[in-house]
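Blackboard transcription, Thursday session:
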Amino acid sequence: MVGMTNSTSLSPAREDYLKALYHLEGDSRRVPTTELARSLEVRKPSITAMLRRLHDDGLVAWEPRGGAQLTRRGRAATMRVLRRHRLVETFLVEVLGLDWSDVHDEAEVLEHHLSDRMVEAIDRVLGHPTEDPHGSPIPSTTGSLAARDLVPLASLGTGEAAIVRKVDGRYRKRLLRWKELGLVPGARLEMGEKRDDEGILHVRIDDVDVLTGGRGVEGIWVERRAPAVSELGP
Amino acid sequence: MVGMTNSTSLSPAREDYLKALYHLEGDSRRVPTTELARSLEVRKPSITAMLRRLHDDGLVAWEPRGGAQLTRRGRAATMRVLRRHRLVETFLVEVLGLDWSDVHDEAEVLEHHLSDRMVEAIDRVLGHPTEDPHGSPIPSTTGSLAARDLVPLASLGTGEAAIVRKVDGRYRKRLLRWKELGLVPGARLEMGEKRDDEGILHVRIDDVDVLTGGRGVEGIWVERRAPAVSELGP
DNA sequence: ACGTGGAGTTAGTCATACCTACCATAGTTG
DNA sequence: CAACTATGGTAGGTATGACTAACTCCACGT
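(Written on the board underneath:)
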């Protein structure tokens, strides 16, 4: 029983599969085995085996060669993991003073080993936050998630203004660069010149012009807003 | 790699065996298989198998039928676990506001899953404490442990005065009762009348006389001190 | 219609950490 | 001294969750 962890007690491996599925299925598509294998860095037969187990548990809809999708129960279980993960990240930054760009890996481990009692204590100490340090919404105890209307930064047209709402926490190096550039949740920016053919774009943050390859901002999600006043001149 | 945890990365099971061995061997004796089995609530063949693995790892001195004992390296590894455990307990009480009597089980899980970076962050936030909430000393980063001269409460003679220094955190119910009685680390007390034949003893705490069976104070460790002044009258 | 390549599965291993059933050694006692 | 008992081991089995090797399925191109 070494792996025993939280109330409903799925193994860490099972929880990781559910999370991967959640992130990959996006707006309700069936996720192919190979994609899960790539995302989890595990060989394909391992995926097949685990999907069968999760199917038997009633957490995932799956048939041989048919792809996989979370069931209602699977989605609920995923929300519990996500809540733990995001509360832990917030906690590590706010209370333990760890760096924004460091906390993802820690949370990746801890999310599987916190009791409900601890999670709620953390939530209480933090004052029931609604977003984690990367800007992702924290699911409620009931598993509901605040819906938002986010688009990838690179999809903005020249002159469009937006607020950074979420950055992908998975890649430490990128996080560090973004942080230097001021590309953090809450930052206001405006898209400058785009050269789609070359994959190069200019972004204005706090009146500083930043040049970057489109690849370099993959994982930054923004919310569109009315363009800056200066752009509306006579 | 699901079980991957902290820097040196022993599995949770291995760390639990080391801890049990540490607690049982006391002042350097060889611990029999059966005792470990009882303490870990695991069958004897599992103990034999694990001792062999730990022996192969160079953490435990063991030969068939010879009992087991931590090596120097095993002891060092144990100190790292103990440090994590006790810092976590302190943290749960001081920062998360969990109850004194609740934290042991949480810490039992978390001690296996905290990175060095997190442990040191916790240590920093707590201001480098030297004792956990149950009064046990917290090993330093180098693995050294403050030595103290503790005796079981029940070993005091009538009239002897002492300070509670440590309570065994493993049994929630006892902890709760001790807490009610004021038998917490730091409490000053004096042994009253003892009836060893009946296993009954009286303890005076804050001038209140508490009657208890000797069994009921197993796990309370005290430091002897000069008897109270009132006892030295003309 | 047919062959090929990639996606997905089956089959069989391995490591960890547990278990039960049974065997061996040794120490105490009639 | 033989028998009984406690202690400690061996053998063999289970569950997870990963792996490689090898097969099947099917869509697509010719």
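Lecturer's comment: Confidence is low (pLDDT under 50) at residues 228-234 of chain A.
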